[in-house]
Amino acid sequence: MFCLPVPKDKYQTSTPWFIRAICIVDAVLLLPYYATNKAAFFAHYAFTPAHPSYLTVFSALFLHAGFLHYAGNMWFLWIFGQKVEHVLGTFRFAILYLCCGIGGQLLYLLFNLHSPLPLVGASGAISGIAGFYFFVFPKERFDLHLYLGWWRIKTLDATTRSAVGAWIGEQFLLALLTQVTQFSSVAFWAHIGGFAVGTTAGLAYHHLVPEAERPSMPLITTAEGTIDTEEQPSDLTTLKLS
Questions:
Q1: Are 153 and 18 in contact (CB under 8 A)?
Q2: Does residue 223 have a pLDDT over 80?
Q3: Which of 19, 63, 188, 219 is close enough to 175 for a disulfide, judged by CB 3.0 to 4.6 Å?
């Protein structure tokens, strides 16, 4: 089962240049996955805890194990990242993205020091962006679509706090379970590490930057009118995915 968050309200934001660049760069870097020897490519550029390097701690953030892995990560980056890039600006957003990604890699390394499995994916960085969003936009409303495979089984009304809070709690439990049983190829510790960096930055921003000084984001009027949200509630045996 997995969940797909869809924001209920649309805002006027500045152009998310960094997010667009990440989508393009990561798409281009899918080509080696399909066109070359995957094992050799990931051996050089994926992050392997047993053989970490300064290069791979960065390069792994831009690699994905196939189109579905890429598409899922980019969806969540687009959903949570647009407003964050708007309030921080492109340069500071890029710094936050990279710091969250590195934080995710390092926490994963701490719990998997001798693992020979390469780690790829942007989920640690994107989890950090969701962590920032958690503190800065806690009351945003979402339709949370629950899927079993390709079948949607239920849609729930949710806010940032309930949706993201439930998700990170699940990630922590799955990380503990994976540490004992190795039942999944997902690098849950990378999600938690990135989220921790993002929430730290979000908490600092929330306390240090008054709302009156933050960039404005007017709601886009729909046919139903403008809503005031303040008043409304791969090869899995040889690769770790983030």
A1: no
A2: no
A3: 188
Tell me the per-residue pLDDT of 115-139, one tens digit each, with 9 for 90 and over. Answer: 999 999 999 999 999 999 999 999 9
Tell me the Cα Rg of the chain.
18
* Per-residue b or e along 155-168, where b marks 16 or more CB atoms closer than 10 Å to that residue's CB: eeebbbeebbeebb
Amino acid 137 reads F
Q: How many structural domains comprise the chain? A: 1
Q: Are 56 and 48 in contact (CB under 8 A)?
A: yes
CA distance linking residue 197 with residue 31, whole number of Å: 30
Distance, in Å, from the CA atom of 59 to the CA atom of 194, rounded to the nearest integer, reads 16
Asked if residues 57 and 88 have their Cβ atoms less than 8 Å apart, the reply is no
The residue range of the domain holding 57 is 2-241
- Residue 127 tokens read as 């989890």
Expressed in percent and rounded to 5, the helix, strand and coil fractions of the chain are 60, 15, 30
